[in-house]
Write a structure and sequence with these properties.
Layout: H1 2-10, E1 19-31, E2 34-42, E3 50-55, E4 60-67, E5 70-77, E6 82-85, E7 92-98, E8 104-110, E9 116-122, E10 128-132, E11 137-144, E12 147-154, E13 157-164, E14 169-175, E15 182-183, E16 190-194, E17 202-206, E18 213-218, E19 226-230, E20 233-238, E21 241-246, E22 254-258, E23 266-272, E24 278-286, H2 295-298, H3 305-327, H4 330-334, E25 337-345, E26 349-353, H5 355-368, E27 372-382, E28 385-394, E29 397-407, E30 412-419, H6 428-439, H7 443-447, E31 450-458, E32 462-466, H8 468-480, E33 486-495, E34 498-507, E35 510-521, E36 524-531
Parallel strand pairs: 25-30, 31-36
Antiparallel strand pairs: 1-2, 1-24, 3-4, 4-5, 5-6, 7-8, 8-9, 9-10, 11-12, 12-13, 13-14, 15-16, 16-17, 17-18, 19-20, 20-21, 21-22, 23-24, 25-26, 27-28, 28-29, 29-30, 31-32, 33-34, 34-35, 35-36
Length: 532
């Protein structure tokens, strides 16, 4: 038990308290040595724990975020203000960082068996593998694509290790360190926080190749969260105040901004992008200050009681099926469905129909499989429709699927399954390009994101348009007559070669919500199915 308790003290797991940790993004400008922070906004907007943000690149951000009682990794698109989950393990992940020169990110995983390790994750499909097996890594950074500098849990404190992930050799260089590790810009050095002097914590540099350590500066009292703006400028957060220190120029830490105006009571993690123009920070805010943006709150149409009630009722009806399935209560499960329920495989393969057949199907399934469960990890609602991203565990195997539920006033009347599939490319890229051209009303750029034989459907399978020429003709007129056209991603699910977006679209002063299922073939959009 001592091993588990030590981990829980050092890893910042979700705590139920009077504050929420949120991720904020702001613009940084420097002029004549003066640093200004502006346009600060909450990009997580998630009740509970959100922390350890970092930049994948100039466009994408990753951070640890809690969903359904588990902490996983979220990717945020700064261009479209959209979020998706990019890993699907049974454990909880923390501290995501891009692995240099790789299409992978790393994260600390606290597995269900109580073991804590550093893993690598593929950005395209979320598959993972262990990077460091024999050390309990709590915090870390990458010195280069082969070298990790980390804080390792030993004897109830953190010690600094350098690990070559190719050879597997780890070397200890310092004891009693903090959680803040950063590659120093334009150098081969890594900074860390030394706590050997309990009265004055210090920022030090480490050369991972030689082990040489040098003093850089003192922190403010009991503060260990810093980052680098450039090779000479440090940023630090204490309570709600952001400070800077220009090496060899400033005698002490100087105040830049007071984030209490953004509702932040305590700044913790800090990170900047490579160009030094954006700042990420994690900050505690009072629970009653959290204002999660939802479609119901942002448009007049979706604040109408009828629409709100419809979506909430649809989600509640779907929940009537999930608990009985996990508890193997066959009759209760069956009566969550309409007597004439239809079960399909996307896009139009009918599997079976009728509650009696459904009950028998589940009866045989439970008999054949000793263990089974379903866990919803992401949910979209649109009127009477619910689109769930689910982790389905059968015996000891877990797979990801998407299920579309159509509901009536009492039951689920149609179920459509979308299976996961392997793909060699990231389908998000072309969908994002399509959205950018759409918002720019660039008809040529828009049509180039589609295949020549593209087909547009209304759910489930009503063909509205076929071919790139027809699509171009249809949208050219629409773009011309809609000067305020703008679409935003409210929620996104990526599964195999499919991208499922809930979109908020402004059209001539009106707000419309819809769900679009994009199917990708050879890096172009070949089919779109709209749920409207």
């Amino acid at each position: 038990m001592r091993y588990i308790l030590t981990i829980l003290c050092l890893i910042p797991v979700l705590a139920f308290s009077q504050s929420n940790t949120e991720i904020f993004l702001g613009d940084i400008t420097t002029e004549n040595s003066k640093i200004k922070l502006s346009n600060v906004k909450n990009i997580s907007n998630n009740e509970g724990y959100d922390n350890q943000p970092s930049f994948l690149d100039e466009r994408y951000i990753v951070f640890a975020s809690t969903r359904a009682g588990q902490t996983d990794i979220t990717k945020y698109d700064t261009r479209y203000n959209g979020k998706i989950w990019i890993n699907f393990t049974d454990g909880s992940e923390y501290s995501p960082l891009r692995i240099p020169n790789q299409q992978e990110f790393s994260a600390v995983r606290l597995d269900k068996d109580g073991k804590q390790r550093l893993y690598a994750y593929n950005l395209s499909n979320g598959e993972s593998n262990v990077l460091i097996k024999d050390l309990v890594v709590a915090y870390y950074t990458w010195a280069d694509e082969e070298t990790v500098v980390s804080a390792v849990i030993e004897d109830e404190k953190l010690n600094l290790y350098v690990t070559n992930i190719i050879s597997g050799i780890s070397t200890k260089y310092a004891s009693n360190v903090g959680r803040s590790f950063h590659k120093i810009p334009n150098s081969d050095l890594v900074s860390f926080i030394s706590k050997t002097n309990a009265n004055q914590w210090q920022i030090k540099s480490l050369n991972p190749k030689t082990g040489k350590i040098r003093l850089i500066a003192n922190t403010l009292k009991n503060v260990e969260d810093i980052c680098w703006l450039d090779s000479k400028t440090l940023l630090l957060g204490k309570d709600s105040i952001l400070y800077k220190l220009r090496l060899q120029r400033d005698n002490n830490w100087k105040k830049i901004a007071d984030l209490s105006t953004n509702g932040i009571t305590k700044i913790t993690r800090l990170a900047t992008n490579a160009s030094g123009t954006k700042l990420l920070l994690a900050g505690d805010i009072p629970a009653d200050n959290l204002a999660i943006e939802t479609p119901e709150e942002t448009t007049k149409e979706n604040t109408e009681a009828e629409i709100i009630a419809m979506e909430k009722a649809a989600a509640k009806i779907v929940q009537k099926y999930i608990a009985p399935y996990n508890n193997r209560k066959l009759d209760e499960l069956a009566f969550a469905f309409d007597a004439d329920v239809i079960v399909n495989r996307f896009p139009r393969a009918k599997m079976y129909s009728g509650r009696t057949t459904l009950r028998e199907s589940y009866k045989q399934f439970f008999k054949k499989n000793e263990k089974s469960s379903v866990k919803v990890i992401n949910r979209m609602t649109h009127k009477n429709m619910v689109v769930d991203e689910e982790l389905v565990t059968i015996n000891n195997t877990t797979n990801r699927q998407v299920t579309i539920y159509e509901t009536d006033a009492d039951n689920i009347n149609v179920v459509t399954y979308i299976s996961n599939s392997k793909t060699n490319s990231n389908p998000e890229y072309i969908v994002n390009d399509q959205l950018e051209a759409y918002n720019n009303r660039d008809i040529n750029g828009f049509t180039k994101t589609y295949t020549n034989d593209v087909m547009l459907f209304s759910f489930p399978y009503t063909l509205n348009s076929e071919g790139q020429d027809a699509l171009k003709k249809q949208y050219a007129s629409f773009f011309k007559n809609t000067p305020d056209l703008n679409a935003e991603i409210v929620n996104r699910i990526v599964i195999g070669n499919k991208v499922i977006d809930k979109e908020k679209v402004r059209v001539n002063g009106k707000i419309i919500y819809a769900i679009a299922i994009y199917e990708i073939r050879n890096d172009l959009i070949s089919r779109v199915t709209f749920i409207q």
